[in-house]
Design brief:
The chain is of the alpha+beta class. Among the domains are: about 1-30; about 365-475; about 710-820, Sandwich (Immunoglobulin-like), CATH 2.60.40; about 825-930, TATA-Binding Protein. Helices cover about 50% and strands about 10% of the residues. Strands 1-2-3-6-5 form a 5-stranded antiparallel beta sheet, with no helix packed on it. Strands 9-13-12-11-10 form a 5-stranded antiparallel beta sheet, sandwiched between helices. The protein has a 3-stranded antiparallel beta sheet with strand order 4-7-8, with no helix packed on it. Helix 20 (about 315-335) packs parallel to helix 21 (about 355-365). The N and C termini lie far apart (about 100 Å). It is found in: Endomembrane system. Its main location: membrane. Keywords: Coiled coil, Membrane, Protein transport, Transport.
């Protein structure tokens, strides 16, 4: 052998030894050999423990990259008896991964787990407890109760703290087993443990269990309170958080509150921001019951602000954002907490946009008569920033400060006026659009201030109008400028000329701008009849005869008739005093705010949503507790709605005018009847302006007996009646249960197979009260449409359902009436209906029923209207029958329907972009009249 060969062999041996080192485990992920399972099987049964350990590592590596190695379960299981701690951990990891797919094989490991639970090493005993807590199989829960009971009483605190967490996991699988074996009582006793970490884990476990059950499993007594406070001093930071969160749910006496606050205050300066925020949560809540006003004032002024500002001053923007969201809640609860620290919320040049926007929100909340001048100077500087979104929000904040503080309104208006002067709005030729948006946004905010303080800034109005009115091309600023012209038509001398220029742009405006322009023109006429007469006539004629938008046309008809009937009544309605702008800086409902403050440092405080709203069905339960539905991201912009509909404040007056319109509409809008002996067709406006016409707000569907879908024999003793209905824009699965078995039934879960429309439950878990043997129960479960779950090949109208109960999984089918898919926004105007009918393909769906039970035209409209089938128009037929036209919307697809009623015979035709959907919709409509 040559010297080169020998040296090469030595290098190969050396490299192999290096690969087996503990830092080179990546080699286990590089194997792609065929027949690897058989090879691993042989290695797992090798006599050498090193070979076995190497094989198990390969198995874990394969499992990690997604390979199926479940065939090796029995071979890996044999190695549970090893004394090698590293190998034992790997085997436990493998068992955890494949426990659900091989539940029977897991039973074989019970004896080994039980034996290891008595191992001399506390690390092994704790490892067993942790592993059995993660094997979430109800069938083997009973086998693990004894090791867990021993773990809760183990002499080593490491095992006890692990067992405490395991109780919470076991409760999630089998609450009955936890109660039967007295684990809750043992868990409560661990709060008196001499080891602080055991106490913290016991508290965390009890708190988690308490959230998932209605029973009072964690009642804090005065003695327990002292033990928790003592343990908090010795806990790790996460243990402290668990105890603080627990204290936040306790309702103390005044004396207890003072004691707890004194013990918790040092946590405010903790290095971990989560501990500090949890401490703030406890203190804020307990201050409500403190009777010592000097202590309350001292804590609020001296102790709480600095920790909040410290967190805010950190270098991590994510933490800053979370802190700001929590501060937003805190200052709504304690309004003067940070008003002297407003400078700390000024935006830095390198702050991310989301932090800047949240800082603006907080600054608006803490603004008052003492600090608004500093804030206004800062906001004025923001007007020259580069980021458009930030600048817009800064200008909007100026408006919020003006609306909130009467004394600040004049200076705020002066700043906004400077923006208009220095940034002439417009997108005309030669003008820089990136500058113009500042003026546009300023004008929009000015309109809000003018509504809050009417007739106070009349000089400002004239100045703004002289700077030009044609350049406002954004929706809201344009509508705001038009509103100003109409509201202050007597002050702005050139208002008629300005409005005339805007009327020339009427066709290019969006709906909101058109509505405002129509209202402003009518206001001009009522205030200056000579200047606005010709203008209002031309615009009303155009809006009522040319425009297709039904909202705009309706408003034009109402104004037309009001002006023609009684100008004084029109003045009283249109020029009536409007509600003033409301201060929205404290926009959370007090009951919602109370819930959110009690969840400071949790996800709920970041989203500004109560915890109940994060889970399916939680919204209903939250409202049932008496809380308001109004939360942060669900607030409606009431101010904007008032901009659009301000002239409709007196609803009764307008409804009366609507009824009169039908008797004196412009002749050009009346459809001429065809000459025939049959009765004249219905006025084309009847379906639009008549509030008394049936079909728009029909009665709710009458509840019917639900059909039997599963008898007791097939349902293992459970009889089920089920059907679908639509209520409030949501499809519900309504179910009645009759328990003829000998088992108490609860914890129902439902799942749907793929179906023709993709109907799926909104969450699997059903809210059904426990049903005793021989008892009955009912439930309504909300549905949702998921296009990914749709399979057009499935039978239409049939939903295959699986219901999980304590009796097992039950399978049945329920019929879904196609009318349940008819949406509430399916109404079409006649012009839309006609143009859509012409544009759709010639292919039509058809149906024919020789004898229908409902032949009266009014009854047909009422019956179909209650099922979201909207009447559009009608006409007589040359043959003596009646043609009725309806519109529906299914999953966003409009369907046009024509029904011809001749005596008791019905012939129908339908059109839609999807002919299959149109046919199903037509059949469903016809069935309602059968």
């Amino acid at each position: 052998m040559s010297s080169h060969s020998k040296s090469r062999g030595k290098r190969n041996k050396k490299s192999k030894k290096e690969k087996k080192g503990p830092g080179n485990d990546s080699r286990y992920f590089s194997s792609t050999k065929k027949g690897e399972i058989a090879e691993l099987k042989a290695e797992l049964n090798d006599l050498s423990e090193e070979v076995v350990k190497d094989a198990v590592k390969k198995v874990i590596a394969s499992m990690t990259v997604g390979k199926d190695v479940s065939a090796l379960f029995a071979d890996v299981l044999k190695r549970m008896t090893t004394q090698d701690v590293e190998l034992k951990k790997l085997v436990y990891l493998y068992i955890l991964t494949y426990a659900r797919s091989s539940p029977k094989e897991v039973l074989l490991s019970v004896n080994s787990f039980t034996k290891d639970a008595q191992h001399r090493s506390p690390l092994i005993r704790a490892l067993v407890i942790r592993t059995i807590g993660c094997i979430r199989l109800p069938d083997i829960v009973d086998y693990f109760c004894t090791p867990l009971a021993n773990g809760l009483k183990d002499p080593d605190p490491y095992v006890r703290k692990t067992a405490a967490v395991c109780v919470a996991k076991l409760f999630d699988i089998s609450p009955d087993s936890v109660e039967e074996h007295g684990f809750l009582k043992t868990l409560r006793s661990l709060i008196s443990d001499h080891n602080a970490m055991v106490v913290a884990n016991a508290v965390a476990a009890l708190a988690e269990i308490a959230e998932s059950t209605s029973k009072d499993v964690f009642k804090i007594t005065p003695d327990m309170l002292n033990k928790l406070l003592s343990a908090m001093n010795e806990c790790t930071e996460w243990g402290q958080i668990s105890i603080l969160d627990c204290l936040a749910k306790y309702n103390p006496t005044a004396k207890q509150a003072e004691t707890v606050i004194e013990r918790v205050v040092p946590r405010l300066i903790h290095a971990n921001s989560a501990v500090a925020m949890s401490a703030v949560k406890v203190i804020i809540k307990y201050l409500d019951v403190v009777e010592n006003n000097s202590m309350r004032t001292y804590v609020l002024r001296e102790k709480i602000p600095n920790p909040l500002i410290t967190i805010l001053s950190g270098d991590k923007p994510e933490l800053q954002y979370v802190a700001l969201r929590n501060i937003s809640l805190i200052v709504q609860k304690e309004k003067h907490l940070l008003d002297k620290h407003i400078r700390h919320f000024f935006c830095k040049y390198n702050d991310p946009l989301y932090v800047k926007l949240e800082k603006l929100e907080v600054m608006a909340l803490i603004a008052n008569n003492d600090n608004y001048e500093k804030l206004l100077m800062e906001l004025r500087a923001y007007g020259s920033e580069v980021d458009e979104t930030f600048v817009r929000q800064a200008i909007a904040t100026i408006g919020r400060v003006a609306v909130k503080l009467d004394g600040a309104a004049r200076k705020c208006m002066r700043v906004l006026l400077d923006f208009v002067k220095s940034n002439p709005g417009g997108s005309g030729e030669g003008k820089d659009r990136s500058v113009g948006y500042v003026a546009q946004c300023a004008v929009s905010v000015m309109a809000d201030i003018l509504r809050k303080y009417p007739n106070r800034f009349e000089k400002v109005v004239d100045i703004v109008c002289k700077h030009g009115i044609e350049g406002y091309d954004e929706e809201k600023p344009q509508a705001a400028m038009i509103w100003i012209l109409g509201e202050y038509a007597t002050i702005v001398e050139d208002a008629p000329e300005y409005l005339e220029l805007l009327i020339d742009q009427f066709d290019d405006m969006d709906t909101n701008g058109r509505l405002q322009l129509l209202t402003a023109t009518v206001k001009l006429f009522l205030k200056r009849p000579d200047d606005g007469k010709d203008m209002v006539q031309g615009l009303l004629k155009k809006a009522s005869s040319v425009v297709e938008n039904p909202d705009l046309r309706d408003r034009a008809y109402v104004y037309w008739r009001m002006l023609a009937t009684d100008a004084k009544v029109a003045q009283q309605v249109i020029l009536s005093e409007k509600p003033k702008m409301a201060d929205d800086t404290n926009k959370l409902d007090p009951s919602v705010l109370k819930v959110l403050v009690s969840n400071i440092a949790n996800l709920a405080s970041v989203y500004h949503k109560p915890p109940e709203l994060f889970i399916a069905g939680g919204k209903e339960s939250f409202e049932m507790k008496g809380h308001s539905r109004r939360v942060d991201d669900e607030d409606e912009d009431e101010d904007e709605d008032e901009d659009e509909d301000e002239d409709e404040d007196d609803e009764e007056e307008i409804k009366e005018q609507k009824r009169k319109v039908r008797r004196s509409v412009p002749p050009s809008r009346v459809k001429k009847p065809a000459p025939k002996p049959a009765p004249a067709p219905v006025n084309i406006l009847d379906g639009i302006l008549d509030d008394d016409e049936g079909g728009f707000d029909g009665p709710a569907t009458t509840s019917k007996a639900l059909p039997l879908v599963l008898n007791a024999q097939k349902g293992k003793g459970l009889e089920i009646c089920a059907g679908f209905s639509r209520r409030g824009g949501t499809i519900f699965l309504d179910m009645n249960f009759n328990n003829k078995s000998g088992t108490m039934l609860d914890q129902f879960a439902v799942k749907f197979n793929k179906n023709f429309v993709g109907l799926q439950p909104n969450g699997a878990s059903m809210s059904v009260p426990p049903i005793a043997p021989g008892g009955t129960g009912s439930a309504s479960h909300a549905m949702t449409i998921n296009p990914k779950a749709a399979n057009p090949a499935m039978q239409a109208g049939v939903i295959q359902i699986a219901l999980k109960t304590k009796l097992g999984v039950l399978y049945f089918s329920a019929n879904l009436g196609f009318e349940c898919l008819f949406a509430e926004d399916g109404q079409l105007a006649q012009s839309q209906y006609l143009s859509m009918w012409k544009s759709l393909p010639a292919q039509e769906a058809d149906v024919k029923i020789p004898n229908i039970s409902i032949t009266d035209q009014g009854a047909i409209k009422s019956t179909l209207g209650s099922n979201n089938v909207f009447f559009v128009a009608s006409r007589g037929a040359a043959t003596g029958g009646t043609h009725l036209y309806f519109s529906v919307k299914v999953n966003g697809i409009p369907v046009l329907i024509e029904l011809v009623i001749t005596g008791s015979s019905l012939t129908g035709a339908g059109k839609g972009s999807d002919i299959t959907v149109a046919q199903h919709a037509l059949n469903a409509v016809a069935e309602k009249l059968r």
